[in-house]
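Handout, section 4.2: multi-component inputs.
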Amino acid sequence: MKASYLGAMGYAERHLFPETWPIPPACHEPRLSVQSYQEGMDECEFAEEMGFEWVSFSEHHYSGRIATGNPAVMAAAVAERCKKVKLAMLGPLLPLNNPVRIAEEMGMLDNISDGRLVMGFLRGTPNEDQVYGVNPSEGRERLFEGMDLIRKALTEEQPFSWEGRYYQFRTVSVWPRPVQQPLPPCIMATRSDDTVRYAAENGMGLGVSFIPVEMMEPITEKYVNWCNDAGWQPGPDDIVFRGNIYVAETDQDAQDWLHALPGGQPRPAIQISRSVAQVVQAARSGEEFDLRRILAGSPQGDVVGRSLGLNFLGSPDTVADKIKEYHDRCGVGVVDLFFQQPGLTHGEVMQEIELFGKEVLPQIKEL
Amino acid sequence: MDSSDQSSAFYEQSIPFREYQIKAGQFSLNCREAGEGLPVIFIETMRWGNRDLYDALGQRFHLFVLEFETAEVENMQARRREFRERNPDALEDFGIYIPKEEGAEAAVRQAAKALAGDSYNLVGATQGANLALRTILRAPVDPEPAESLVLLSPNAIRTAPDLFDLDSIGWTRRLVADIHRMTNIRDLPDSWDLAPMFLPKESDAELEQWLPEVKCPTLAVFGTRDRQIAREAPSTYRANIPNCHVSLIYDAAHLVAAERPQAVADVVSDFIENRETFVVNRQRSVINP
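Output:
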């Protein structure tokens, strides 16, 4: 089993951010931001040194909690710091982006890292649709078409034009081609049946994030069955779980840290206006929405958000046991870990990485 | 060449089509004509699925749709009658036959010259595309009569290796990516063998060798889910025809015009009007001036 370090590059004073998304640019202080990126890359480098085999990057916008609006830029910088780890793009938000641009970025990353790229695709959280003005009801279809276009763009040997539903390009001829032929490993980050099936039918891996093991188990069960139906069996690197972690010397230390947090749990990562959240969810589900009815319940324009909870909390043994459970029950072969919990300093994260590398990794590596 | 008017329409088009028969060589061809402007000769392989494409092309060009009338496929006419009886409300019929023997190319050239004069744009779909390509390659005239050549899902070159082993059900499934988009095809009995309409004689290695001889601007159109051809087929056209563009129609299989008619009509029309400059986007993107 492999461990992956999520290169979030969180802004050092993210614990002082206001409650709502987006975070105003006024909260940004350039020198602190420069320091935060340097520290984030130090963490990636140290994770590699401690035995992590992947570093992952994730596209999020308008917030310093995960400060990688363009994950390809971040991956390129880390590729020069880390010379062995796989660079896992988990990933670009396809509905928001030009798929040809993403294909070009993937091609470049696989070349500058000499074949260490793992490609991942996902739709994104509801707030992200607002960033580039994408209609939430079109996200799923854009995701499917974008994936097909990227895979074609990276594998076709001659220029072509693309006549899609959402994308039309009359000249596509992506350069450079990936080092890994015909394609770098691809992972679909999803929980929905239709996208899980797409991953299985197209020989792609599956990435699932932040849910408890008992919720993940039926998803991977379906995925493996659909892979078998499609004539292949997923390997250990094909099932990835991304989870929040806080590892301490003892279980008591970990509980003490948790209880010291406001509310006794990590804050929701993304809080948006209740009415906007409802409208986005309605659009994504293809439902009609009544603005006046929605607003009637929240005249003050209150915000909503969900704490994702900590999937791995405790001593090294406790964390290792929990990771093993994801392996044994869900077939997880790569665990992608978000260490930069709110309020933690760079020094504390480095200590956690060291503890994980010395005491957790040896327990899960041979799985 | 003889021609004679025929009053009955095959199926409803949203624009008026004139329909008549012509003789070319040893073949009898059915011709439907509509519109005005640049002449477009379209060699048809099938009737269902192309209706919207013909409407679109007929509104922008002087369109001549040619289909070979032949009794060569056993019981074809009887099957058509049976289909119409079973589906009295069907908008479209289910298919025709493209002859593979020598002489069909000459018949196309002869008919095209008679209908459109010395210069025209030649379009073919599936077997019709194979025939259009052979027609261009075997044209004895210089310069070529075609101003442009459009090949919709040609399958004679780099045919999928397992294509010849499929039964009729397998064939039907490979025609479309989503069977529910084809209102009529769902009603076809499994016993009806569609293969003769779409199956090339063989993967035509000789034809591939001659691709560099195609002189006119060429557009080769393929569905991204077309499993009648090998993966590398689209690239083969682009790599070997000097002025060739490949267009991939997302989420369509072999019958691209049936599954994504507007997308196909757009790219084909753009190409016929603008040839290789169709790559330049002329759409305005101003939101609020």
